[in-house]
Specification:
- Strand 17 and strand 18 form a beta hairpin.
- Helix content is about 20%, strand content about 30%.
- It is α+β, with helices and mostly antiparallel strands.
- The longest helix has 18 residues.
């Protein structure tokens, strides 16, 4: 009996430890890697400073450097287009000397008070867990001083190949004082001896996939990327987050016939919104997603016209590419009627060459839509599309765009 109670007490003590053992990640710079080494003075700069660790050529000082991405979470890949930062700690004989920097020579803002808003603009939407480029650009449109840094971020240097081939620029300006008491203002720059090397967007995606065992040593194709995305529709609860997002849009709009639309991209590349057509109703409180990255959900709400006895019936067109790189248009349509007696909910999809839906084909498509059922699939030129809809007046319409063989 004593042994039994001892086990119970041990169990009750162990569980609270288990429940609280997660360490909250940093708000920024959560994903990082560190390296230890030494700093060696190569030139005589005694005329600039009397600091002990800079006193003469050949002096070595042990240090540690932590490299990190700024915005994304600890589990994010290291190939995202994200500002990189680093922190350097010199262990000198006079105490620790710290330097921090970024791989951009100029920072986004001048006023430190704006820093929280800057990070909030870059952070993924807490409802959908998706980074929204329109929020980033909308915020920076009010900050003309950020233009230089934005060009660096979206230039080829925006994704370094690795930390060994990345430049560094100190954030702060330091004062160096020599033995004569003369003061000079300096900034520290890091120049990689290996040169600067960067990744383009397609190369960065390929690096992520090649890290997976099933693709090691294999040439990564667009279909391979589509396959990975198709198998990760629910990874990290992103499908739940997307559904929560459109449900919140529904709550903002109110009661009445509406369609909660969820579109998943598993085509191996981004798809771009190129158009829409409304037979009945209109887009809800948030616009159509302009761009949906591979492996991401896009969500929006389509609603009936207020005060009119009509339902929600529309089509949206996204443009992507097949395995050969040919542009194709995915057309996704749904009908959620106001009069439930004359017709039921239907869904219809079609894939054609780029610009096909710029012609006035909507009457034919509406006929196909109303003759369809709650599920429909289409296959064309190596592309696949699957749509389905619920049966209620607040129906969930779900579409998946992918490639053959994925």
């Amino acid at each position: 009996m004593v042994q039994f109670f001892l086990r119970i007490i041990f169990w009750w003590r162990r569980l609270p430890i288990f429940d609280r053992e997660r360490i909250p990640e940093r708000v920024v710079h959560a994903r990082g890697a560190s390296a230890k080494g030494f700093f060696e003075v190569t030139h005589d700069i005694s005329h600039l400073t009397c600091a002990d660790f800079l006193r003469a050529p050949g002096v070595q000082t042990p240090l540690i450097v932590r490299f990190s991405t700024v915005i994304h979470e600890r589990a994010s890949p290291g190939t995202v287009r994200d500002p990189r930062g680093f922190a350097v700690k010199f262990y000198t004989r006079e105490g620790n000397f710290d330097l921090v920097g970024n791989y951009f020579p100029i920072f986004f803002i001048r006023d430190g008070m704006k820093f929280p808003n800057l990070i909030h603009a870059f952070k993924p939407n807490p409802k959908s867990n998706i980074q929204e480029s329109w929020r980033v650009l909308d915020y920076f449109s009010h900050l003309p001083e950020s233009l230089s840094t934005l060009t660096w971020l979206f230039d080829d240097v925006g994704i370094p190949q690795d930390y060994r081939h990345m430049e560094g620029f100190g954030v702060h300006t330091f004062t160096l004082i020599n033995k004569a008491g003369r003061v000079r203002y300096v900034k520290f720059h890091w120049k990689p001896t290996c040169g600067v090397k960067c990744l383009l967007d397609d190369e960065a995606k390929r690096v992520v996939i090649m890290g997976m065992p099933e693709y090691a040593g294999k040439t990564i194709t667009r279909t391979d990327r589509a396959h990975v995305a198709l198998n990760m529709k629910s990874a990290g609860n992103k499908d739940v987050n997307a559904r929560t997002y459109v449900e919140n849009l529904k709550q903002q709009w109110g009661t009445g016939v509406s369609t909660l639309c969820l579109v998943y991209n598993a085509t191996g590349d981004s798809v771009i919104f190129v158009g829409s057509h409304d037979w009945h109703g209109h887009i809800g409180p948030a616009p159509f997603p302009v761009e949906i990255q591979n492996g991401q959900w896009g969500g929006y709400l389509h609603v009936k016209v207020s005060g009119v006895a009509t339902g929600s019936s529309a089509a949206v067109v996204y443009r992507g590419k097949n395995e050969a790189g040919d542009e194709c248009d995915w057309m996704l349509s749904w009908s959620n009627p106001w009069n439930r007696i004359s017709s039921d909910n239907t869904a219809y999809t079609q894939i054609r060459e780029a610009h096909h839906y710029e012609a006035d084909n909507w009457k034919y498509i509406s006929e196909q839509l109303y003759d369809s059922g709650i599920q429909h699939n289409d296959e064309w030129n190596g592309c696949l599309s699957s749509v389905s809809t619920g049966t209620g007046t607040t129906a969930i319409f779900e579409a998946i765009m992918t490639l053959q063989g994925a």
